[in-house]
Backbone:
């Protein structure tokens, strides 16, 4: 990189740290201020922060590598979560905000009671804050390591300091993230997320634009794919016998993954943003903004770069490197620095969120709950900063145990599959108890790990998802019916605070003498119509960009049906359909 490029990156880092230092005074208010921003986030800031969290440095590398291996249809690995995210908007966002907990794990002792609830809370807090969270951050660090290596940004280590230059470069950035995330808490994270998201989006658009111009536009790009024998990568929805994505895996993504995964009702860092919103309505609007930014706004620049990579870099041994290599190939001085800064921003946004979220579990759900319930707020904030540093250290170690982004992404999905059905049902059926949730989590984790043993061979990923999801159900369902239901007092307390709809709480609702906040049937219809609108708009936009007329027309029809459905529900049910 040239001197102007380095100055741009340096200016971004200084700006980020300055924002963190400026907001550090807000973190002194205690745990609620440090981990959920004093429940004062506006919806537009919370929603953009949710999108920035998933817009990590690994995302463009992962998508470009995925397209080289499985085509556009391979993106159903993450597109399928659009269904659960639509449920988050219309079904769960308001209930999470009404719960008024500090973390999603804390909900377990609101929904369940006694020793089983305490065991479940401690187990979830440790499992998600330490091993799973550190692997997730390691996944992001692995992507940053690839960028550092591809761009030749290796630091010159002073003599006598051992280690890999790539590791030290990533560790430096991680410590920098730790500074502002540890000082300012959630407000520092979301404030920097806001401009990090738009910087990362501009960077992605620049890379896609320059790459597309170089190959001669979309028509020439498609011709190049045809000449290379890779027209199959343009498939957006695979057909049976597809050469891009196995049809069985596609069905597993669409029919199992979104409801079986451990984030079926929101997920830790997303829920953290919803809990930090000012009102229930703000929580719903934040989730809505996140979904549209995540699936519609930013997906297609990555897809374009991935397709160009297939044509321009057909023999690349590691397809994950296509994105940074195309940056080097096309971007002039100054713009290269801006896009490098955008990747650094994407890295920092995700890592800062994971650090703060993981620390919230360690402080709120382990230390303050089980070790020292009488600890002062100042002490808990200090412990949160120490926990943040520990998470960064463990994650740096995890980053060097894998080298394939796609494989690690699938592994994270596999070990998180199993408890999703219970996490949804606990909101709408009184009979679900703590033992059922604990059994689903442990069984899913164990089955997924066992499926990777050599004795089972190379399982197709769709098969692994099905085995894990339904295998865990064979464990948690008997456990639920063989153990006692929750006490009436616990169920009544939960219902009165959250007020879920549906027939699963009919008896409890009568005793509570309080109606549901939203009718479940109308909410599900609203979700269905909004899902058609989301995917319709997303694929219509893709069809327009890639000059696929049939895709544009069919997807546009779905979008139209979805929007008409939402308008009809609004007209028929009025405020009941919209809270």
Residues:
């Amino acid at each position: 990189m040239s001197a102007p490029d380095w100055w741009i990156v340096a200016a971004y880092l200084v700006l980020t740290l300055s924002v963190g230092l400026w907001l550090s005074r807000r973190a002194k208010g205690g745990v609620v201020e440090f981990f959920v921003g004093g429940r004062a986030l506006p919806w537009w800031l919370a929603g953009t922060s949710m999108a920035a969290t998933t817009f990590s440095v690994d995302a463009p590398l992962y998508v470009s590598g995925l397209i080289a291996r499985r085509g556009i249809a391979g993106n159903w690995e993450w597109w399928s979560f659009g269904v659960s995210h639509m449920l988050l908007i219309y079904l769960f966002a308001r209930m999470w905000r009404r719960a008024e907990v500090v973390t999603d794990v804390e909900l377990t002792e609101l929904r369940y009671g006694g020793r089983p609830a305490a065991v479940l809370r401690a187990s979830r807090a440790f499992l998600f804050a330490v091993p799973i969270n550190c692997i997730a951050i390691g996944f992001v660090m692995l992507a940053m390591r690839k960028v550092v290596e591809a761009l030749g940004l290796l630091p010159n280590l002073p003599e006598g300091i051992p280690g890999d230059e790539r590791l030290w470069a990533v560790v430096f950035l991680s410590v920098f993230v730790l500074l502002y995330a540890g000082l300012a808490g959630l407000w520092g994270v979301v404030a920097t997320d806001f401009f990090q998201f738009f910087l990362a989006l501009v960077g992605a658009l620049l890379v896609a634009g320059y790459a597309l111009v170089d190959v001669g536009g979309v028509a020439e790009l498609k011709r190049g794919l045809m000449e290379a024998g890779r027209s199959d990568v343009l498939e957006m929805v695979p057909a049976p016998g597809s050469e891009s994505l196995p049809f069985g895996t596609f069905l597993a993504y669409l029919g199992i993954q979104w409801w079986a995964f451990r984030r079926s009702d929101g997920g830790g860092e997303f829920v953290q943003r919803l809990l930090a919103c000012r009102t229930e309505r703000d929580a719903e609007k934040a989730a809505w903004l996140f979904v549209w930014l995540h699936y519609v706004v930013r997906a297609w620049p990555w897809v374009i770069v991935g397709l160009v990579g297939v044509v321009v870099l057909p023999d690349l041994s590691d397809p994950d490197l296509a994105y940074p290599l195309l940056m080097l190939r096309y971007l002039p001085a100054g713009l290269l620095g801006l896009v490098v800064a955008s990747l650094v921003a994407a890295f920092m946004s995700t890592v800062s969120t994971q650090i703060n979220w993981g620390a919230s579990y360690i402080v709120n759900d382990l230390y303050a709950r089980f070790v020292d319930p009488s600890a002062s707020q100042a002490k808990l904030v200090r412990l949160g900063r120490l926990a943040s540093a520990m998470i960064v250290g463990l994650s740096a170690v995890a980053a060097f145990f894998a080298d394939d982004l796609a494989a690690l992404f699938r592994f994270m999905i596999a070990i998180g599959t199993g408890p999703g059905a219970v996490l949804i049902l606990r909101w709408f059926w009184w009979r679900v108890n703590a033992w059922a949730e604990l059994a689903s989590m442990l069984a899913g984790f164990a089955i997924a790990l066992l499926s990777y043993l050599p004795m089972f061979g190379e399982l197709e990923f769709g098969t692994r998802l099905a085995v894990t999801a339904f295998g865990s159900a064979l464990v948690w369902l008997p456990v639920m019916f063989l153990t006692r239901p929750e006490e009436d007092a616990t169920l009544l307390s939960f219902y009165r605070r959250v007020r879920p709809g549906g027939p699963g709480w009919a008896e409890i609702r009568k005793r509570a003498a309080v109606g549901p906040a939203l009718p479940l049937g109308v909410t599900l219809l609203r979700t269905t119509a909004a899902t058609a609108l989301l995917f319709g708009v997303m694929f219509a936009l893709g069809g327009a960009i890639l000059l696929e007329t049939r895709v544009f027309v069919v997807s546009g029809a779905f979008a139209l049906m979805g929007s008409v459905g939402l308008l009809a529900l609004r007209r028929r049910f009025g405020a009941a359909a919209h809270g």
User: Anything to note?
Assistant: The chain has 25 helices and no strands.
